[in-house]
Design brief:
heterodimer, A: about 300 residues, mainly alpha, two-stranded antiparallel sheet, two-stranded antiparallel ribbon, 4 strands, about 5% strand, B: about 300 residues, about 75% helix, elongated, disordered C terminus
Chain lengths: ~300, ~300
Amino acid sequence: MRPTVRVGAWLLSLLCLTAAAAPWLATSDVATQRPDLALAPPSLQRRVLVNRLPPTYRPLDAPLPLVWFSGRLVRSADAAEPLLPLGSDSLGRDQWTRVLHGARLSLGLALAGLAGALSIGTVLGLLAGARHSWLDSGVMRLADLFIAWPALYVVLVLRATLPLSLSFEALFALMTLVLTLAGWPLVARAVRAVVASERARESVLAAQAAGATHLWLLRRHLLPAAWPVIATQALLLVPSFILAEATLSFVGLGFSEPTPSWGTMLTEAINPFTLRQAPWLLAPAAAIALVTLSVNLMADRHDRG
Amino acid sequence: MRRFLAGRLAFALALVLVAYVGVYLLTGLAPGDAAGDHMGSEATLALQRARLGLDRPLLERLASRLWQLPTLDLGTSARFGQPVLALVAQRAASTVQAGAAALLLALALGIPAGVLAARSSSSVVRHGIATLSVLLLSLPALVMALLLLVLTSGTGLPSLVLMVIALALPAAALLERLQARALHGVLRDPCLTAARARGVPAAQVTWHHAWPLSVPAVLGLAGVIAGQLLSGALAIELVAVRSGLGLLTFDALQARDVELAAACAAAVALIVSVVSLSADALQLWLDPRVSIANDDAAADGYPAR
């Protein structure tokens, strides 16, 4: 294993673990708004509001009273002055806590979409590659049509034409469906290419001559050959799914307030004036970049050498 | 060769038509319509519907629209009250302008960087470029635009420049990857060994012998990248406050403006088709063997986004 691949794998597992442990690592509550602490900078000191517009704070000499391992890893003992490791947003909510919970939503959605796209893409790719039939040409023409379109437009049109205001569960299912629909053609095409070339090998012909059934061929010969391609496709799809969720939420078609996802959080960062006051609003962007970086490092092996 | 290009042209035309019809139907079937947003009594609503022609069945509207398509009459936008064709043409021009500038910048940065990454004798240069390109690839254009917004706020940088840089840098990193990989692929070619044996200087071997060999491999995927760049980017347009095709599509979809949304989709499909068609033609002109080997090349891979 190359060192870059190992670093990428470690980084990705660390990020996933962090997301899984979000309730324990969070320093505050997701939804609690503190108007007095709007756009407060990260600080270990107690701070006092000097100016309300734009919010400016002066750190005091007294440190925040920190409590370790009391239900959470660390939090401030004084409920009025929470610990803000990444500052707060314009409603005074803890940015670190929201990034953590946003990670659960964004990564969870990406995984759900991945599961859908990989299963549908693999099944259709296998069936299309296994024998020349109307299914092969039909499925692949459809996939070509999807792929020829820029992916973001596919996601945008699919999402925008579905009902807009929904409960959280319905919305999650719908977004998963949209990502699945946008992702399967890429998987299907890659799987089909491998399966079609694998089918022509002597080992498969020999198995066929020995009387192997169609299902046996699929299960024992064609699917195992397709696994590496499926893994590569999964790696390539993760960042685009996360970005698709972020973009949809960013333009108001995805998850909405007060649910924290990386896309909804970035809507705060669109105002240059606020952003200059509080650059920590870019924390979700950094999180997206970290996930993408870890996946790119892992995919590096397929790129060079 | 002519047959190959004719096939591609037919696919491109089909793509534009499918995009138009598909989005027309999807938007038309979506809950709500262009008249539904206005407050008013049932009577005014019915009047509004009749004025916009929404009282007729969807399929009838689509059929009459398709009948008028050869005269390039795309109807009037319900959202903006302007002819659709003029509106789309104007926004598409703005998008293509920014996209073309970004493409040129990406090519100017990415291709030399890729050649250097593959052929430089200094390991510092090789590893530096590889690291930089992984980092840039990990900053999706949306994140890049927000980052540039922070860095340049207050400097009065025109929105066009911001948009071009945000689009170009990730694309340049992707092109660098492709170029380096393509060059690695041709390095063992016997003609390069022969050139080296004749005593041709290393730089000339790289640029005059190896690089032209690698161009067709780059071009195959560069066409896809160019299509993505030229067809608009919703999130970046939102960040850079510069309206283009992405934002227009978004507006049309949100307002359930069927005619405009369909025309935007067709425009996107048209841009992507023209770009990929010219990339194909260029590739064919450079390397006539492509039309035979094309199916293998298409299955080889696709860019991350």
